[in-house]
Design brief:
The chain has five domains: 65 residues; 101 residues, PAS domain (Beta-Lactamase); 135 residues, Alpha-Beta Plaits; 206 residues, inorganic pyrophosphatase (n-terminal core); 117 residues, Diaminopimelate Epimerase, Chain A, domain 1 (Roll). It starts with 9 loop residues before the first helix and ends in a 14-residue tail after the last helix. The chain contains 24 helices and 23 strands. Helix content is 43%, strand content 20%.
């Protein structure tokens, strides 16, 4: 390595000092007072500078001596003659030494002695280097893999970095990744409904608009777009073009939604994206993603990767399907399973409400009418719908309900388990009952979650439905030999009224048809309303929660201060409903503590998707009703996390703040 003089900086300094002394000397002929003053100051500065240079020289000598002590002659010769670029830095990140190859190849004939090591590692600091064996470095136009060797001593540590250039290999690797194929499936959610009453010319116009939008949207890529059905499209595209699409959060969803029929119905699109190692795997993953997108209500994109699913969109309501063909098919298949089973168990989620327990109990009661043994599995002490249990008991049907421990004793290898109002294995009433069941049927209306029960023989999942009770009311109409009693009809109607908030939220045409069917069977709306009656304490708890609510960016947030525990579940849910009737409130969130968890009940009127916010916190639900649990934190901490999730939801979905602060939320 070429030797450099450490004191090479002295000649220019000597020139500067000489010029300074000459200028002071000139002042002798003009003003002696100023001359002596400047002379004293100049001598003082020169003395300080000399002292500083001496101190710096000793420090440099000490540092180089220490480096020399820890790198013996053989090592120094080896590093100097190494065909690889080598740099040595201190534990503080200062560059102490490098060989000629490093200076020529990496630095391109410049010097960086004493500079921070980040100047030659692309910003990677010494703390990362100290904890790594290799680091990937971008320096200039070249790429390197640096292997790190650590030299320890009693005083300090040295780090030796061996640079290996692999620019070409990394470019080839990146090109391989960017050229991998991805499959994107497009499915128009509501084509049947759009075309049902449309004129022939309007049908062609709508289909043409969607196709033109997709062609324009994909024209910037090198992909292949093909239409393989009236409402389905296939796009094969490289990863280099897929990534910008994902970064734009599939804005094609908004463009398609802007297309409307003469009746004012918007077109919605569902997208499934698969990224596999080959085209076959990518297509399979795209179909799985499409199933998830449709299962969550449509009008969104689901991206399936090796690590799971990512979702984009999902801001609108689920598309209601008028046809009941699938309901008839499911009813026929369910009847065959019932007839082939020894006994049947129905079960819902933990802390069962009127929708969960109403659907499970009515279905079990109907199956008994077929001459089969059927029971509804529920933990009575934890149920939020004790009125249903009491009503069946008063009618002499108290044995319809059994505890999970009793259910396990009844289970055989030919037991049919029907799960209602949930498809999440972590939320069901009993894990043991589920694990011991060989045949499982799911009946649920919540938007599909990634972590769902996968071994179901029948997965009857309709996110457009208002409630599980609505789905059961439709099913029993097509199960031959089944008859609903008055108490069954009232239980189902109570569940429908709960989830629709008395036919206000998510009540479609089929919801009213199911309610009319139950009314014809003798369901008394007055008796149903009595099921919603609560205690005076529940009413007071609800009032306290509502009175303490604050408005934050169009959301009402209330935190229970009493810490009353599980009895607040009903009050919290009712309070969340009440807060929606405040002016300018798009969504409501009620937080309350139970054991070591903070529970969140979330509600909206449909314009704000509370499911996406709750999913970000590990929960779920659907567009207008969702919830989550946060463990081992205080309510105030949970509130702060919730506010972050609300802000993130607004940013990611392009929803600007509405500035409806009533009180500062800290």
């Amino acid at each position: 390595m070429k030797r450099r003089k450490i004191w090479s900086v002295i000649p220019p300094i000597v020139i500067l000092v000489t010029a300074l002394l000459l200028s002071v000397g000139v002042m002798y002929f003009f003003n002696l007072i100023i001359f002596y003053t400047e002379l004293c100051l100049t001598v003082s500065v020169i003395a300080v500078a000399i002292g500083w240079f001496v101190y710096t020289r000793n420090g440099i000598k000490s540092t180089l001596a220490s480096v020399a002590e820890h790198l013996d002659q053989t090592e120094r010769d080896s590093l100097s003659g190494s065909p690889l670029p080598v740099v040595v830095c201190s534990e503080h990140g200062e560059i102490l030494w490098y060989n000629q190859n490093f200076r020529d190849e990496v630095l391109e004939d410049s010097d960086v002695y004493g500079d921070a090591v980040t100047s030659v590692t692309g910003g990677i600091n010494i703390s990362v280097i100290a904890e790594s064996q290799t680091v990937e470095i971008n320096h200039g136009s070249k790429r390197y893999t640096a292997y790190i060797s650590r030299v320890k001593s009693d005083e300090f540590d040295l780090f030796v970095l061996y640079y290996i250039e692999n620019t070409r290999f990394k470019q080839i690797s990146e090109e391989y990744v960017l050229s991998r194929p991805a499959v994107i499936l497009f499915y128009i959610d509501n084509m049947d409904e759009l075309m049902q009453n449309a004129r022939e010319s309007e049908r062609a116009q709508i289909s043409g608009k969607v196709e033109t939008l997709l062609e324009d949207w994909t024209s910037a890529t090198s992909g292949i777009l093909r239409k393989y059905a009236s409402d389905r499209f296939l796009l094969i595209v490289e990863q280099r073009h897929l990534q910008p699409i994902i970064l734009d959060r599939f804005n094609i969803l908004d463009r398609v939604r802007a297309i409307q029929t003469e009746a004012g119905i918007s077109v919605t699109l569902s997208i499934g994206v698969g990224q596999g190692s080959n085209l076959r795997e990518s297509e399979r993953m795209a179909r799985q993603a499409m199933d998830m997108a449709l299962g969550r209500g449509g009008d969104q994109a689901a991206v399936k990767t090796q690590n799971g699913f990512d979702f984009y969109g999902g801001l609108s309501r689920g598309v209601e399907r008028r046809t009941k063909v699938r309901t008839r098919v499911v009813a026929s298949a369910l009847l065959e399973l019932i007839q082939a089973s020894d006994n049947i168990l129905t079960m819902g989620h933990r802390f069962s409400d009127l929708d969960c327990l109403g659907s499970a109990s009515a279905l079990a009661s109907c199956i008994r009418g077929l001459g089969k043994t059927a029971n509804a599995v529920v933990r009575r002490e934890q149920s939020l719908a004790p009125e249903i249990i009491q009503r069946y008991g008063d009618a002499g049907l108290g044995d319809l309900f059994i505890e999970p421990e009793q259910a396990i004793e009844l289970m055989t290898g030919n037991t049919l388990l029907i799960i209602t109002d949930t498809h999440n294995p972590h939320m069901i009433e009993s894990d043991i009952v589920l694990n011991n069941a060989d045949t499982v049927v799911i009946i649920d209306h919540h938007r599909k979650m990634v972590d769902h029960i996968e071994n179901a023989v029948i997965f009857y999942h309709e996110p457009y439905a208002s409630s599980a009770c609505e789905m059961v009311a439709e099913l029993v109409q097509y199960i031959e030999g089944v008859k609903l009693s008055k108490i069954d009809a009232e239980s189902l109607l109570a569940g429908i009224m709960l989830d629709t908030r008395s036919f206000v939220i998510k009540a479609g045409v089929r919801t009213f048809e199911a309610a009319a069917y139950l009314r014809r069977l003798g369901a008394d709306t007055v008796e149903v309303k009595r099921m919603f009656a609560g205690s005076i304490q529940t009413y007071k708890d609800k009032a306290d929660i509502v009175s303490g609510a604050e408005l934050y960016e169009g959301c009402a947030i209330a935190v229970d201060k009493s810490g009353g525990g599980g009895h607040l579940r009903i009050a919290a849910a009712q309070a969340a409903d009440e807060l929606l009737y405040i002016k300018d409130v798009e969504a409501s969130f009620v937080l309350f503590s139970e054991r070591d968890c903070v529970n969140i009940s979330a509600r909206s009127l449909g314009g704000f998707n509370v499911q996406l916010v709750m999913e970000a916190l590990g929960g779920g639900g659907h567009l207008t009703m969702a919830g989550a649990q946060l463990a081992d934190i205080s309510p105030e901490q949970a509130k702060a996390i919730l506010i972050e999730a609300i802000d993130r939801y607004r940013r990611e979905n392009g929803r600007p703040a509405v500035n409806t602060h009533e009180a500062a939320v800290k």
